């Protein structure tokens, strides 16, 4: 009888341990499924002191995100509003779109930006303030014939939007001019692993770079004549999206 009681007690303990283990596993899975605001990309990823422009964000669980917080008080954002529809009461917020203003006294440098919404405050993303002229990539520019025109010096804000997206640009250069091409991705938290290639007017490849300064591509060329160069930018693994 004593042995039977001990065996029953051991079985009960095993069952209790199993219940606790199952409960812990279920609790862990439930916790992992809780939504949390996640900021994966901002575009453009910077601007000039004194400038105002439209900025879009991308990520996950961005429900009801209506505020952006910058690590510099001189950089502010207001959610973009759309005209009300026939059944709306007042202007309506445009999801994930903000009007950003950089104060004229904001120093050049990298800052952080976070999004706040229904599921709390997000992780930070980098935001670059600089004094070079800012331009935006214009699609379509997926072939040399569609190459967008850029002038130097400038910061060109672009995105590789999918596996087949290859971005082309053209820039006019003059004889004996030193031209630098620097593609910043890791510095601004981009997932893009870029390959930058420069071609001469005759189609001949002049230079190509994948890992340069701080592992981002850097090309340093000196021209021999007046001509127009073509520049191609793509992801080395043919990936893409808003955070590339």
Measured as a percent range, the helix fraction is 10-25%
How would you characterize the largest beta sheet? 5 strands, mixed
DSSP, total strands = 18
Instruction: Please report the number of helical segments.
Output: 1
Which value, in Å, is the CA radius of gyration? Answer: 26 Å
- Beta-sheet strand percentage? 35-45%
How far the N terminus sits from the C terminus, by CA atoms, comes to 71 Å
Oligomer: single chain
Task: Please mark out the parts with pLDDT under 50 across 5 or more consecutive residues, or reply none.
Answer: 15-26
Query: What is the arithmetic mean of pLDDT?
Result: 89
Q: Supply the helix-strand structural class.
A: mainly beta
* Elements, N to C (H/E): HEEEEEEEEEEEEEEEEEE
> What's the overall geometry?
elongated
Describe what this molecule looks like in 3D.
This protein is mainly beta and 244 residues long. Helix content is 13%, strand content 42%. The protein has one helix and 18 strands. It has one helix spanning 2-32, and strands spanning 38-43, 46-47, 52-60, 67-70, 75-82, 92-102, 109-117, 120-121, 125-129, 134-136, 148-150, 155-157, 167-173, 178-182, 194-199, 205-209, 218-222, 227-235. The strands form five sheets. Strands 2, 4, 7, 8 and 9 form a five-stranded mixed beta sheet that branches. It has a five-stranded mixed beta sheet with strand order 11-13-18-15-16, with no helix packed on it. It has a four-stranded antiparallel beta sheet with strand order 1-3-6-5, with no helix packed on it. β7 and β8 (120-121) form a beta hairpin. The longest helix is centred in the N-terminal third of the chain and has 31 residues, at 2-32. The protein starts with a helix and ends in a 9-residue tail after the last strand.
